Amino acid sequence: MSADRSAAPSQDTSSSFxxxxxxxxxxxxxxxxxxxxxxxxxxxxxxxxxxxIADWYERAIFPQEIIxxxxxxxxxxxxLDGYGCPGRSAVEYGLANQELxxxxxxxxxIVSVQGSLxxxxxxxxGSEDQKNEWxxxxxxxxxxxxFGLTEPAAGSDPAAMTTTARQEPGGDWVLGGAKRWIGLAxxxxxxxxxxxxxxHGDGRGVRGFVVPTDTPGFxxxxxxxxxxxxxxxxxxxxxxxxxxxxxAILPADSAVGLKGPFQCLNEARFGIIWGVMGAxxxxxxxxxxxxxxxxQFGAPLASYQLTQAKLADMAVAxxxxxxxxxxxxxxxxxxxxxxxxxxxxAGKLDNCRVAIEIAREARxxxxxxxxxxxxxxxxxxxxxxxxxxxxxTDEVHQLTIGRTLTGIGAFTSRG
Length: 415
Known about the structure:
9 strands, alpha+beta, 4-stranded antiparallel beta sheet, Butyryl-CoA Dehydrogenase, subunit A, domain 2, Butyryl-CoA Dehydrogenase, subunit A, domain 3, 3 domains
């Protein structure tokens, strides 16, 4: 049934930097500098990503030159201080992520892998020599990094990793094992590899190592035939007697055990909380424009009640997601230590759910045209299947929140 066209005019949200989806005055939550940073990233996406992303996605091409472009844009290690890093706020970093993911999740993932994972590991846990050697080159895009935690048989349970590092009498470390679903590994100049030391090393369990990828025994192969993240690179790494000097280990006490990689994962998860809202907003904008122009039964699709109901639900959900991201970002900027795992899990869990449902709903509203790469929602939906899975599945985040609520860890099976 069509809507009453004599109803009151809609609210003008054109002045919001987030566009028509901004129903709740989100624009007013951000400073002029924060909004300008987001608009700078949007301009980069509009010039360098949007015109090409359908072709890159269809042909499974990763535009390697985009890494240097991200370096010039200042989004690699954007939230890190010193060592040539941009040193921007958490909220600015979040806004940059949502603009990048409005272009494509796979390309936003590059910024997460480089900055939130590989660079964060060195910045948080590395020696001064490691920081001085790598961080400035990685911030500029001159050097590429990857982060090797996940294994073929150890995804949600990293404690089950089988990659080992043994220390020999002379002090050298020798790494052996395999990693899987490692972004950028075939392009990387340096890899941060996490391995079990156990009785082979200092007895302190999982440790991280800074591994130049030209080290003999290190090899990486891209994973092909993907239905998601087709414009980015995910790989399998093999480590066959990779010999490293004693000072290749990340030396900080903060890197001992799984708390080391988990701190980096939470940085990446924070970016995802914001990023997926960009994908959702882009899908919403695509279907909002389409329904205004597409006529069926003698009227624009936007004039029908069912269409408006769906658009309303999408917009409310996106506003809620931005408010959640904004809250966590402000807490992080005020005191990074106050951001708890449960807080990060709440944001990643709900915003990923919201984003993927919006992308799917938008695809449906586009009808048959929605299955083509002329429109972004199905590409976003396919990419978000990966985003929802990596850096913690829904179930991992539910259990993280559940542990906070009950005081009981339920990650292991209950016999």
